[in-house]
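Why predict the complex rather than its parts? Because the way molecules touch one another can change local conformation, and only a joint prediction can capture that. The input here totals 1176 residues.
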Amino acid sequence: MEKAQAKLELQPEGEQDPEAEAAARALLTDLYQFTMAVAYWRAGRAREPAEFELFFRRCPFGSSFALAAGLRDCMRFLRTFRLRPADIKYLASVLPPDTDPEFFEYLQGLDCSGVTIRAQPEGSLAFAHVPLLCVSGPLLLVQILETPLLCLINYARWGLRRRTRASLRAGGPGESGRHAAHSRFLASSSLVATNAARLRLIAGPEKRLLEMGLRRAQGPDGGLTASTYSYLGGFDSSSNVLAGQLRGVPVAGTLAHSFVTSFSGSEQPHAPMLAPASGQGLPRDLSTLAKSWLGKVCECLGLRAEETHPGERAAFVAYALAFPKAFQGLLDSYSVMRSGLPNFLAVALALAELGYRAVGVRLDSGDLLQQAWEIRSIFRKCASRFQVPWLEAVSIAVSNNIDEKVLTRLARKDSEVNLIGIGTSVVTCPLQPSLGCVYKLVSVRGQPCRKLTEDSEKQTLPGTKAAFRLYDPEGAPILDLLQLEEEPAPRAGQELRVWPLDVSGGDCRSLTLTPASLEPLLRVYFHLGQVCEPIPSLAESRTLAQKSLGCLSPSHKRLEHPEPYQVALSEKLHALLKGLVQSNQEGP
Amino acid sequence: MEKAQAKLELQPEGEQDPEAEAAARALLTDLYQFTMAVAYWRAGRAREPAEFELFFRRCPFGSSFALAAGLRDCMRFLRTFRLRPADIKYLASVLPPDTDPEFFEYLQGLDCSGVTIRAQPEGSLAFAHVPLLCVSGPLLLVQILETPLLCLINYARWGLRRRTRASLRAGGPGESGRHAAHSRFLASSSLVATNAARLRLIAGPEKRLLEMGLRRAQGPDGGLTASTYSYLGGFDSSSNVLAGQLRGVPVAGTLAHSFVTSFSGSEQPHAPMLAPASGQGLPRDLSTLAKSWLGKVCECLGLRAEETHPGERAAFVAYALAFPKAFQGLLDSYSVMRSGLPNFLAVALALAELGYRAVGVRLDSGDLLQQAWEIRSIFRKCASRFQVPWLEAVSIAVSNNIDEKVLTRLARKDSEVNLIGIGTSVVTCPLQPSLGCVYKLVSVRGQPCRKLTEDSEKQTLPGTKAAFRLYDPEGAPILDLLQLEEEPAPRAGQELRVWPLDVSGGDCRSLTLTPASLEPLLRVYFHLGQVCEPIPSLAESRTLAQKSLGCLSPSHKRLEHPEPYQVALSEKLHALLKGLVQSNQEGP
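Output of the joint prediction:
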């Protein structure tokens, strides 16, 4: 797994990268990026140095945090960005017919060799308004990159639901701050990794979480992205084989109802002989053996063997013959208690007689918690009755539209569920299915830029910035600080005056604090067209995510009504912002 | 546009298809498909003839209809399906170590040459439980195809929100029927095309609808799918250039705030000379000309020219110089009424003086309907004052989180909005973001199969089927009929006894009706590995969708609480279903 990741990092050109070709689609962008490109070019501004910031305005799902993820996809795109002759020809066919032909010649040479990217590390905690990516380079090019970068980042990332102020506070960390009303009508953006992290927080560290949402994903790479980033956010594995092959996500799987129902039981069992696990002794007919065990199981449980479905048992036998060391049963194709469970036990005990251990059962309907209790109790009964101690601990997996609420119940302390398969609600982020990252111009030719729209929600923070995370003496993050890049970095142990962020430009009180330690948040990953710092492997990023979440105070980590995490501006940045707001109010 | 589509159809091998490589990812599937494959193969059943049906159980968004879409993606996948040596090697590394090595040899020869697909035509109306795809072929293979087909279809398609009965009725079309409670907790699946069709129904036929959600889509092909199928569902165009290049969707675009804010106004205007449209007369300095027009505009509107932003005007001039015949202004980077609008008018009137016509303005914040009224009134005032009649009719485009509710307001009869850009709410289907198609085994070796779980919601209809749509004398569809494939087709003008569908197997009354006309719903598009009927172009499917929707009765088309559309079973299929339910209740 780690090897596959490492290999990607060593391919600066991306030719061997199986995903590079798809990633390299330079026309994956909005047409207006190219109409603007014509206009920048016509105005002689194509190569002016500019910087855009990619950030989100509100954490998703009402959480106070998000996880940074998706950097690798961005690097892959940038490394291979080029307009092929066919792309340019197509553009010429859709741009206005009087577009200067020289513009299309200019496009031929366009690549990312002038682009530099600073970013927050993959898997780290991220908060509203702190840039995830700072993209600097020639104005025309970094403008064109807007849509593909948002498209790549947004799905792997964040959104908005609460109004901005809910994620900001006027006071220090100890004060209660002001909360704003939810803005429910903005059913909007989301992050698979953050979503997965929430589900992991609910499930606790013990339950195994399997992502199985490929069939519910938004197309093939929606599925790939979902599988990759749910793993980063804290899932244990995915059913998506392609995510395993391309991204190194551990894969897992069992069997489906169609397999079970495809057996009627009237089939002649095919090659039913199975040799004992030890290799010693004669092979036995597993089908016959299971049938004889069925009688004993039904007797023990007070069931009628005639009520069990023979096709289901034939399916279990077929599966056990294929995987005698990894037998699993799907119990609810017919009746769980009257058919699925006794059939599973019959096959599991037949295998046991040959020295094999069954590994698990899965339930896909009904009251999952209740059934898991009943099944565990029957496992215990049979383990004791038939002296097969391991049977007691056979893994119980459940699935079927599991969302945060259902998961909360399944994760109860006394739950007997071991593995939880989640599809739809992890890959589609139903709590907040749409996506809210934005990409805003912050400087041109070194001069800070700012959109000063009448809609204060949509205003932006001007200038090229640095960002720092400030920690308390226990190592918990207390605040993210944004400042202008040219300012000296704050120092640990030194008192600092900062301005809690209020994008509306309204009045707010400053506060002073002394960080016990701090770290810069933005690292240069891509410098003038070259990847200059390796992106950690997916598994490393997953570890970082869990570690960062572990340090975050429980009050911020709470899933319902968390205390908002504070983002603040340096004095200088605050002054710049105030100055621009004022000059706009007075007119230019 | 049509050419691009036609080309795809002529490439049976897909080698030249720019999307084929990505589509051909045979490992885009759940691992359990391969564990089951091992077990089918081990049981000697790999090549048994089998049929799966792909269908949805409830129409999305509380609608009574959905649109069939996504067939082309499925054909592309099937045509190119093959496991490469690297895929097989990867599978061997993740399947249990004792998997029989011969299985992997078997996989090497696997392709879709034994697969046949019947499907509803692309763009036609589709209803719950009527198969969208019937996939027949060797059991092992058609099982493996489950996940990729669902992944490809689901995003392009449907979902569930209401409980099944809400979409079924016991009585005939004239009766009121029974409605069940909504099942809100099942926040689930959706269809971009259906979503787009709903938005088109709200907008009415006149307003132009632009899909601009690429940056909010679930990754690159989520974006491509969204752009393609929102066009099919009734949008006019997309901002997504790749969807234009690969799928022939008409593309459109304007300019963004970053373009406007990148100009400070202090720049030296670059090559500001513009020749008159007629080609006769001397070039004029557009920047100077616009400045002089600004004075007149402000005087006419009672505004102060000093309040307008010079950077915004410089941006408009730059855009107009690049596209003198297609000038558009984005009005809300600063103040719409005090800066954006007078700057736009200044540049538009300067262009007018040179014989050019501006084409539009865009608003991206604030009260869009109200502003459009004000802007139109100012356009009229200036058109009359400066004797530029076309100015009155300049297109007003709006965007900014437009959902069904906002659209309803913007589509009012007296609205002055001409073009509506919709992003998030068309591509992410927030009303129902997750997806609900299922893929169920209906026959093996010619024998009907059925999952008879205790969860009646999850039960399936057995047997290989035919499906017909029955029409009333006015050509409105009244009912979809499912029957066994071997039954004779129903005939127009002949009385028919049918059983309204009740998947729970409960009692329901039959009804008799006499269709004025009917049409078979399932066509063979792919026969034994070959595309055997060309899939209509995207534009043709779009036309079919609008035509089919046009025939549907308004009571079914209503977006809130529509009358459910009826699906019914033939006597024979009903009897088979009853028999299987009964035999299961009595035990096998």
